[in-house]
Amino acid sequence: MKSLKLRWLLIGNLISSTGTSFIWPLTTVYMHDYLGKSLALAGMVLFIESLIMIGGSYIGGYIYDQGHGRLWMLFSIMVSIVALLLLVFFNKWPAYPILLIVNGFAGAIANTIINALAASIKNHEASYVFNMMYFMANIGVVLGTLIVGFVVKLNIRYIFVVTLLLYIAFFVIALTKYVFENTRIEKGENPAKGKVSQKTATRSILIISGILLTYLMIQMGYAQWQSNLSVYMQSLGIGLNKYSYLWTVNGVIVVIGQPIISFLDKKYRINDFKKVYLGYVMFVAAFASLIFAKDYLHFMISMIIVTFGEVIAFPVIPAIVAKLSSNSERGKYQGFVSIAASIGHAVGPLLGGVIVEMFSYELLFETIVFLVLVFTIISLIITYFNLKK
Q1: Integer-rounded Cα radius of gyration of the chain
Q2: Backbone CA torsion sign across 284, 290, 295, 299
C-alpha cells in the first residue's frame, strides 16, 4: 500500500493557506466598505464564524477517529469549493457572510483531519512534520496577502475566483496524494473498531490540558494584535500603514526563522517541552512590554518577541499532542488544538473591547500577562510532575 508523502501534505498546506489568505484579510474591509455594514456587525460575523469553526474542529477530529477521514476530508473541501463558487456570483448581503461561515466550517473539518493525518506520518519526527506544516502555512499567508493587494485593484470578485482555483488544485492533490493508512471505507470497514479501549493515559490528558489552556490564553492575547492594537496605535498617532508593517516583519521572521529552528531541532534534538515553555515565556515578555509601549519602536520590539514566541511554540503544540494522545484518539486531540485557537480568536477581541471600553488598554495588557503567566506556571507544574511519573 502507498504511504503518505510529506511533500504532498506540505504542498497542499501551502495551496490551501494561500487560498485562505485571500479571504480573511478582506473580510472586515469588504463588509464595511463594499457592503456598507458596520464594524460591529463585521466583528459579529467573525465571532460567529469562530464559534462555528470550533464545532467543525471537533467534528473533524471525531470523524478521523471513526475511520472516515478520507471521505469527509474530500467532502469538506468540496463544500468549500461550492461555497467559493457561489461567492463569485453571490457576494452581497446576506449571501457573503453565510457562504463565508459555510467555508469556515468546512475548512475547520478538513484542517483537523489533515493535522491528524500529519501526525500519522512515520518516517519523520512529529515535531519536524508540524514545523514544516507551520512553515508552509505561513509561506501561504505571505503569498496570499501579497498577491491579494494586486488582485483587488483589478476587481474584488477576482479574489473569489483565484481562491476557488486554488481550492480546486488542493482538492486534486488531496484526492490523488493523501493516503489514509488505517482507513478502508471502500470495503465498509471501520478501522477504529476494536481500538475504542485504547484511551489516552490520564497523565497525558493532564499535560495536554495544561498546554492547551495556556495556548488558549496566548491566542486571546495574540488576537489583540489583529483587532484592538490597530485602534490603540492610531490613538497614539501611529498610522495604519505602520501597523501593517508590523505584520510584514512578523511574516519575514516566521519565513526565515522556521527553517532555522527546524534545522537546529533535527540536529540537536531539542526537547519539545523546553521549546513550548520557552515560547510561552516569550509571549509573557511580549505582552508585558505592551503595557509600556507608547511609540512605534516599542510596538516593533514587542511584535518581534511575539513572533519568536510563535515560531518556537506554535508548531510544537500539535506535535506534543500527537505524541501524548493514543492512535485511536489522535483526531480528537488534534481537534482540541484547533478548538483552543478558535476560542481564543473568538473571545479575545470581544473581551479586549470590553476591558478597553470600561477601563484602559494598560489593564487589558496586564490582564493578558496575568492569565498567560498563571496558566504557564500551572501547566509547567502539571507537566513536570506527570512526566516524572
Answers
A1: 21
A2: positive
Residue with cell 459579529: 44
CB 376 within 8 A of CB 200: no
Q: By mean pLDDT, which of 79-83, 123-127, 200-204, 274-278 is the weakest?
A: 123-127
In terms of Cα–Cα distance, which of 191, 123, 138, 113 is closest to 10?
Answer: 138
Q: Which three cell numbers stand for residue 279?
A: 515560547
| Model confidence pLDDT, tens digit, residues 209-262 | 999 999 999 999 988 887 778 778 878 888 767 777 787 788 888 888 878 887
Distance CA 141, CA 72 (A): 25
The Cα 53–Cα 55 span in angstroms is 5
Residue-wise pLDDT tens digits, 334-355: 889 989 988 888 888 878 888 8
Does position 192 have pLDDT exceeding 50, yes or no? no
Structural domains of the chain, with CATH: 6-180 (1.20.1250.20), 202-388 (1.20.1250.20)
pTM assigned to the model: 0.79
Q: Give me 166's grid cell.
A: 486554488
Would you list the DSSP string of 253-289?
HHHHHHHHHHHHHHHH---HHHHHHHHHHHHHHHHHH
Record the cell numbers describing residue 213, joined without a space: 489552556
Please state the separation of Cα 125 from the chain's center in Å.
Answer: 21
Question: Which pLDDT score, from 0 to 100, does residue 47 have?
Answer: 82
For residues 253 and 139, what is the distance between their CA atoms, to the nearest angstrom? 11
Identify whether the C-beta of residue 107 lies closer than 8 Å to the C-beta of residue 20. yes
Listed residue (355, 377, 385, 383) closest to 221, CA to CA: 355
CA-based nearest residue to 313, from 373, 284, 272, 354: 272
What is the reported pLDDT for 243? Answer: 77
How far apart are alpha carbons 90 and 16 in whole angstroms?
A: 22
Burial grade of 330 (CB within 10 A; 0-12, 13-18, 19 or more): buried
Residue type for 6, please? Answer: L
Q: How far apart are CA 352 and CA 356, in angstroms?
A: 6
